[in-house]
Design a protein that fits this description.
Distance between the termini of chain B: 33 Å
Strand content of chain A: 25-35%
Order of helices and strands of chain B: EHHEEEEEEH
Strand content of chain B: over 45%
Number of strands of chain A: 31
CATH architecture of chain B: 2-Layer Sandwich
Strand order of the largest sheet of chain A: 3-5-1-13-10-11-12
Number of domains of chain A: 3
CATH class of chain B: Alpha Beta
Oligomer: heterotrimer
Chains: A alpha+beta, B alpha+beta, C alpha+beta
Number of domains of chain B: 1
CATH architecture of the largest domain in chain A: 2-Layer Sandwich
Structural class of chain B: alpha+beta
Structural class of chain A: alpha+beta
CATH superfamily of chain B: START domain
Number of strands of chain B: 7
Number of helices of chain A: 19
Helix content of chain A: 25-40%
Amino acid sequence: MSTRYFGARVTRNEDPALLRGHGLFVDDVRVAGVASGAVLRSPHAHARIVGIDARRARTAPGVLAVYTHADLGTLGEPLPKLIPHPTLIHHKTQRALARDTVRYVGEPVAFVVAEDRYAAEDACDLIAVEYEPLPVVATLEAAVAAGAPRVHDDLDTNVCAHYTQRVGHVEDAFARAPHRVRARFVVDRGASCPIETRGVVAAWDPRARHLDVWDSTQAPIPIRNGLARLLGLPEQHVRVVAPDVGGGFGPKIMMFYPEEVLVPFAAMRLGRPVKWIEDRREHLVATNQEREQIHDAEIAVDADGRILGVRTVFLYDSGAYIPYGLIVPIVAATTLPGPYRIPNYHCEFRAVFTNKTTVSPYRGAGRPHGVFVMERLLDQVAADLGLDRAEVRRRNFIQPDEFPYDVGLTYQDNAPLRYDSGDYPACFARALELIGYRDWPARQARARADGRALGCGVACYVEGTGIGPYEGARITVEPSGRVFVATGVGTQGQGHMTSFAQIAADVLGVSPRDVTVHTGDTALFGWGTGTFASRAATVAGNAVALAAQAVRDKTRLVAASLLEALPEEVELADGRVFVRGVPARALPLGEVAQAANPLRFAMPEEWEGPGLEAVRYFAPPQGAFSNGVHACVVEVDVETAMLTISRYVVVHDCGRVINPLIVEGQIHGGVAQGLGGAFWEKLAYDDQAQPLSTTLMDYLLPTAADVPPVEVAHIETPSPLNPLGVKGAGEAGVIPVAAVIAQAVEDALRPLGIHITEAPLSPNRLRQLIVEARRSP
Amino acid sequence: MKLEGTTTLPAPVETVWKTINDPEALRRCTPGLTELTATGPDAYAATLTIGIAAVKGTYKGTLTITDKRAPTHCKILLEGTGGAGFMKGEGVLDLEPEGTGTLVKWAGDMQVGGLIAGVGQRMLGGVGKMLVGQFFKCLEQQLGSGA
Amino acid sequence: MKPAAFEYHAPDTVEEAVALLDAHGDQAKVLAGGQSLVPLMNMRLARPAVIVDINRIQTLNYLAEDGGTLALGALCRQRAAERSALVARHCPLLGDALALVGHAQIRNRGTVVGSLAHADPAAELCAVLATLGGTVTAVGPQGTRSIPADELFVSYLTTSLDPRELLTEARFPALPRGTGWAWKEIARRHGDFALAGVGVGLALRGGRIAEARIGLTGVGATPVRAARAERSLVGAVPSDALWEAAAEAVRAEVEPDGDIHASAEYRRHIAGVLTRRALAEALTRAREAA
């Protein structure tokens, strides 16, 4: 296979339309006669619904219907449980509308459909709900305290899962270790906040008995299958389209959000298309959140800083329900070991209900927590033993000749955690070189003499990517010569229309501009699991490659008869099909496609059907492991505790890179979100679990004016686990950011000896740490 | 949200006590109160429209005076629900003589839920203190005029 | 996030606008840039029954120098004022502060007068008006009156305006020639409301401070003139120790609120830090101007 486009910085196929405002997002979908939905949400974090009086709402101008749980019939049952786990003993999910109890501020209580959204919101104001407030579980620690009120009153606990994994014998390791560090780490809640909020449009054709749904989801095929099952429809009669999606980042995968059921239900009941678009305030209470964990962690090392054992026991806040299972805490626990050799490891967590918004994976999905804990422990080891923090890491790296490396744990895909390839020392060295680590002490000293507090941080991670179960692709060459790729994953900005086109273009000898990629439409491709966990390029990308190769083989077969040659003599390049060594004996690819679809006469049996088309699937047995190192330079204004990030460097290894432009874009975006989680973004709740940051005024998303330029360097250690040798890159940018910022700030303030064990930081909090450090002897 | 403070009122303890328990004084001085209807001893149905400038919410609920230890201690409980969410304010008042007047020590717990809490957190504490201030200022005027 | 229903009027003259306000009283709100009002309406925190849109009253769209005072009409956009040569020459403190009000896109529509009428406790422009001792002009059914800054701002989002009055103009006195100035603020992100902000004016005579102005935002329900700190500076010789003493005096004079972003203690602390830094910068400018 030629690699003319694979690895090239091809500008994106999707951009001209998007930049001109010609994208099709859910809110752009035009369906005649569409009505607007609005959701009435609970203002209480925990309450019994005593009664709902919707009479005034039902007769308000422009109102078509007001639905409460009583109207839903079987659709009022708890929504599906995704990803069960043997230790998840209380797999609670919410109902599409609350029946008798609300468990978080924002939980849907009623659904109004009206001629427009204004009228629907007017009607929501007229619905009188009588609540009896119940005791609120507002924090993780309160949830596990003795005598805590219960989020689910049919349980005698708020703990829904308790899972432990062990490698080696950690008690022995700690017992004989010359040196130990123990600390408590707290990471606070955050939201994904994509630029496009959620939205659903549904249209039901009662004559064709066909349901069309447009949904800003990362997983349209599971939504299609789930809706078909829920509504008693054949899968063939339900079409779900995830059109252009303005960012997903994890929380846009669910099956289901209440609105994903309510909107189709209402459309079918009313006989009119229905549209619901989430506004930003709703998003910040009603779309799944993440990040809240408390780790009690310790590390045991020898006198040279070599790791003997690591232990973490943590609490994971699942919010009021746990539809998505234990993915986040399992990923946190299995990411913690990172690029280091850890002979003894104990990771244990309890997943806990609280009266807050439901939690599901958000970019990183637990990896940031594992890395934060590990990197902070190592930094403390370095400080305690008087070792350079880079040297401590070097002494513990898994070496390039140790792959495949068995960590000894089970990963989120239920497969053994086995690193396939990587060169951690080389990646690290490159990052140190780019940030100027060797000269750093001198530079820092000069700055300090000038009264400036500069700090340098460097942090490492290994990222599990490319997990199964499978993805597929169908490739079709049309008589025009244009190549069409259809795959089951969705696209929320990852550039699939370009990267998949590059893969197909190389195999079929065409330009990526002549390849059209369709994702996220169940009518065009009906098998797949979705875009999540940094897997689309690896899993769907390989399926695209396999399908393209099959199409190329078919092309050779068909062309062979046309060109009077043997199939193995036929080549594809520049949109043409020709005999090797005789470029004059050539046909445009499109003509071969035409010839492959005869209108009359017999068709050769060896063609196994008409057309230049093939469907292939790729099912990796386990994930592929990317890795990287982030490094930064920060300046702390010691008086105000404000931070300036002067440099940010990422050295990243995602195996073979399909399109460096796209990978860099992914990293830039991830770093922006990582910086948000390191210094700005925190979902605040009061002691009654009332959300206090429900607008972007108070939920501090860093803007383009706040995020520094990110310098990216690539290292490629191909994955042996898939033919393309690729690994995932989607989450890399976000993973070690809180850790590297914390290290850099501690470095800047080293004379004060502050310890940062939480994320996000804020100037307020950092000043507190500075003041406390100055007070203590 | 916990708020507390002290204020001095120009009347003896017994007079201040009577005024605080007088529905007319409550009606006049509770900020935003537009309706107060007795439903029982020391219990009222209340409608409040509170807010600042253009940002207002109407809450329907109850006002009750409990924990009475005449003439020095009581608790006023005000709670209501409305489109903007719900609010609940609990204030404990302790009266002591100070010269010819009364020193009022108040400690309150204010809970706001729903829309206002999610969007207005920046000003809730300040506005809460301001409303309590308005309440006492009004009482001061009532007492000063010898009502 | 759609507003509740409202009646909409777009008068062509100030008289028509005032007549509408007179008719509807506190049921009406004036719409100029809408950058504060419209979000409140969309979130249904404010539900004015009547909107009086003054954007057609082009006689209110001016920025002029009037004998040592800059007069900005009610439709003068923040971005226009920010880029104005008159502001740069006569009132650079206003120009500096304007650059930190929200983002450029907001300043394209938002008006200076609108920000003053909205009276957000962390707004830059209210503090600048207070620091400079400026006034606003209010037109109502009973006539026209001038309101000085220290009488305009009453509390959170509350001015002394009657609901029937329309603010038609803001007047920012120019600092005398040779006066140094500085605006300093701390915000969590570019364009955010300040956690605390300080505007300073400093005039020297014979090596001593002849006049000092210190105005703060974000440290109370309204902008604060640190009068005690100002008085402590007059007649003194500038020095780092003097600035530190002024900073301490400011800390003692302010009563900030805490919120989820910063505690009262943090705001009080940086009010002092920013005062000190602003005074030092103003001194440099005063010396350059001499």
